[in-house]
Design goal:
By secondary structure, the chain is an alpha+beta fold. The protein has three domains: 6-134 and 249-264, Nucleotidyltransferase, domain 5; 136-243, Ribonuclease H-like superfamily/Ribonuclease H (Nucleotidyltransferase, domain 5); 278-388, Substrate Binding Domain Of DNAk, Chain A, domain 1 (Sandwich). It is 25% helix and 37% strand. The chain contains eight helices and 21 strands. It has a six-stranded mixed beta sheet, with helices on one face. The radius of gyration is 24 Å and the shape is globular. The termini are far apart. The relative contact order is 0.11.
Length: 391
């Protein structure tokens, strides 16, 4: 079968996982609950285990790797089988890009989803991941522009819990920045007759500070029959109001389209909570001239911010990193000592330096002594340091 150029979005985080795919050749979008044959799919037990891993991380790498291997294998098997139910028989051949979305991205989730992609046969550059806030951004900005000419609001109902999120634009910047702002949360009372009054107060407190082009609501709990007063307030000021479903799966699918098919949002920059907000680099001597060598650029998501390079140590047994914020040029210096490094003549120690992140403001630096050929063998020493974002 030839490449169908599908883009796929998968929402793993709901009680009933959702899959959305877009076929470029037919300009058709299909969204459906994930199934195997006629049976619904649930990742409930797996997600509970991941949450347990989040709250109680293990320092035993062997145990963590085994958990990751087992859980990713289970998810990958279900994904492949459910895709076949929806007519996607060969993801390697048919899928141009795929985005998996979950409520919040943590290190275990990132490791798991990357392992799932590897098992499904989706190589780096076709498989992405994002949280629910970013999925809502893509869902919204792939609507008609009149719906997001001003701020956009989103009320999410999960049983009796209700939360609010807004997308706020700064039209004065280039590119235009879009920032998700998490608002108030409430729990609806046991007595349904009180819900309209509770939600009315929430809507009033959430929307009165800004001008909104549109409001989206999602969740089976919301019903205009009990929310008559609240609904009238939502529609006040000619705001467009939509009750929607599958927002996150659709948003993930739109994100996949943006990343691999079309760049219609290139004039906008999403400033989500997963962004790295600092630039990291080093001063290096290249062909006799001292230059700044960039390692990490601000504005990428923390789980995509990785860099490995090799360098020759000059001077003291330490590494110095230059760090600057996303919106300013002021630099600070971060020093990493290399204790017990074997004594060698200057410029005869080669180091492998690796940088990665475990959260948006927590950077992991690893340096390994590679020696200098046969003259100065590698010592096998490895140094690790944590650098936190400057508040």
């Amino acid at each position: 079968m030839g490449v169908r150029n599908l883009t796929v979005g998968i929402d793993l985080g709901r009680e009933q996982p959702q899959l959305c795919y877009y076929e470029a050749s037919s300009d058709k979008t299909i969204t459906a609950p994930m199934k195997i044959g006629n049976e619904n799919v649930s990742f409930g037990e797996i997600l509970e285990e991941i949450e347990l891993m989040n709250s109680n991380p293990t320092s035993d790498l062997t145990v963590a790797e085994e958990q990751n291997r087992r859980l990713s294998g289970e998810i990958a098997d279900v994904l492949l089988r459910s895709m076949k139910t929806l007519g996607i028989k060969e993801p390697k051949e048919e899928v141009a890009g795929i985005v998996i979305t979950v409520p919040k991205l943590t290190k275990p989730y990132v490791s798991l989803i990357r392992s799932v992609y590897e098992r499904v046969g989706i190589e780096h550059g076709r498989g992405y991941l994002q949280d629910y806030n970013e999925s809502f951004y893509y869902h919204t900005f792939y609507q008609k522009k009149e719906l997001w000419s001003r701020n956009v609001g989103f009320f999410l109902f999960e049983d009796r819990s209700v939360s609010f999120l807004s997308l706020e634009m700064n039209q004065q910047t280039r590119p235009i920045t879009v920032k998700p702002v998490e608002g108030m949360e409430i729990t609806l009372a046991n007595e349904k007759m009180l819900w309209d009054d509770q939600f009315y107060k929430m809507v009033n407190a959430s929307l009165r500070q800004n001008i909104y082009s549109s409001i989206f609501l999602m969740g089976d709990t919301f019903d205009k029959n009990w929310a008559a007063r609240s609904t009238a307030l939502l529609c006040k000021g000619r705001r467009k109001v939509f009750v929607v479903d599958n927002v996150f799966a659709r948003g993930a699918c739109c994100a996949a389209r943006e990343k691999v098919l079309k760049k219609q949002l290139s004039d906008y920059l999403y400033l989500g909570g997963d962004l790295v907000r600092e630039n990291i680099g080093m001063q290096m001597v290249v062909q006799g001239t001292e230059v700044y060598y960039p390692l990490i650029s601000a504005g990428v998501n923390w789980y995509e911010a990785e860099k490995t390079c090799e360098c020759i140590l000059v001077g003291e047994p330490e590494l110095r990193f230059l760090v600057s914020g996303m919106n300013d040029r002021r630099q600070r210096s971060f020093r990493m000592e290399l204790p017990q490094l074997p004594e060698r003549p200057d410029k005869t120690t080669r180091l492998r330096v690796s940088i990665s992140y475990e959260s948006p403001n927590r950077c992991l630096i690893e340096a390994e002594d590679l020696g200098f050929g046969d003259i100065y063998p590698a010592s096998g020493l490895v140094w690790r340091e944590v650098m936190e974002e400057d508040k």
